[in-house]
Amino acid sequence: MVSYWETGKRTPSLDEVANYLYALGVPRQQRKAILDLARPLPAPDWLTIGQPGVAQQLAGVVECEREATSITTWTIGVIPGLLQTADYTRAIVGREKPDAETKVKVRMARQKILTRHNPVRLTALVSEMALRQVMGGTEVMADQLRYLLHATALENVTLRIMPIGEGWHPGLMGPFNLYKFAAAPSIVHLEHHRNSAFLFDSEDVRVYKEAAAKILEGAMDPARSFGFTAEVLNGMETAT
């Protein structure tokens, strides 16, 4: 881990720096000065566009997911990536693409943040549309809905379904991910077809926090969300 920090392959979190300095026996006053240097600085929003930015974008997402204490994700047409099955992901990325299996494996590996020691707390705000949009055929979609129900058994995962036809709410403007950290400002990630943006500005982040709160107000509670997802699954199984 230390070699990764020294070579710039990974940036240590503030907590990691603090623990490392304590282990080295650095005096308290000196530790404080070093920690001030390690605190995140205000940064401009980071935009990645098209294929050249894909690796950079994914690296940023993975780092945010790994360091976050909680994630709030809002999706409209698809199940959140952290709760997808492998076959569902294949249906999205396209089996025929040469790098399809690599993308599937990466997405499955990212899900380990939900089951690791001290797991990330995930609040998945999902539009009803995502439950009804069949990806990869009814069998794949049914398996996906079963997995979604299974994931809610984790104490750190909360599923909230937003019904369609309830009028305007800020989530209709597009999907987003909100990452909260223990010792750093929150970050928002926006992902679209060929571009992605990370928002660091405190005012932008505040607006998305308010958007998430507004979606929560209109979403079904966890129990109803579970029951509704089960109803959609049952209807899908009955139809086949």
What does this 3D model show about the protein?
The protein is of the alpha/beta class and 240 residues long. It folds into 2 domains: 1-39, no CATH class; 43-239, Endonuclease, Chain A, CATH 3.30.870.10. 48% of the residues lie in helices and 16% in strands. The chain contains 10 helices and 7 strands. The protein has helices spanning 2-7, 14-24, 28-38, 54-67, 86-93, 100-110, 128-132, 138-151, 202-218, 222-239; strands at residues 46-49, 70-75, 121-127, 157-162, 176-180, 187-191, 195-199. The chain has a 7-stranded mixed β-sheet with strand order 1-7-6-5-2-3-4, with helices on both faces. Helix 2 packs antiparallel against helix 3 (28-38) and helix 5 (86-93) packs across helix 6 (100-110). The protein is globular. The chain starts with a helix and ends with a helix. The model is unreliable at 47-54 (pLDDT under 50).
Concise structural overview:
With 240 residues, the chain is of the alpha/beta class. It has helices at residues 2-7, 14-24, 28-38, 54-67, 86-93, 100-110, 128-132, 138-151, 202-218, 222-239; strands spanning 46-49, 70-75, 121-127, 157-162, 176-180, 187-191, 195-199.
* Total number of beta strands: 7
Instruction: Spell out the CATH superfamily of the largest domain.
Output: Endonuclease Chain A
Named at the architecture level, the CATH assignment of the largest domain is 2-Layer Sandwich
Strand portion: 15-25%
Task: Give the N-terminus to C-terminus distance in angstroms.
Answer: 50 Å
State the oligomer.
single chain
The averaged pLDDT comes out at 87
Count of the separate structural domains: 2
- Strand order, largest beta sheet: 1-7-6-5-2-3-4
Structural class: alpha/beta
The helix content is 40-55%
CATH class categorisation of the largest domain: Alpha Beta
What's the SSE pattern? Answer: HHHEHEHHEHHEEEEHH
Examine the coordinates and then state which fold CATH places here, giving the name of the CATH topology of the largest domain: Endonuclease, Chain A
Judging from the principal axes of the Cα atoms, what is the shape?
Answer: globular
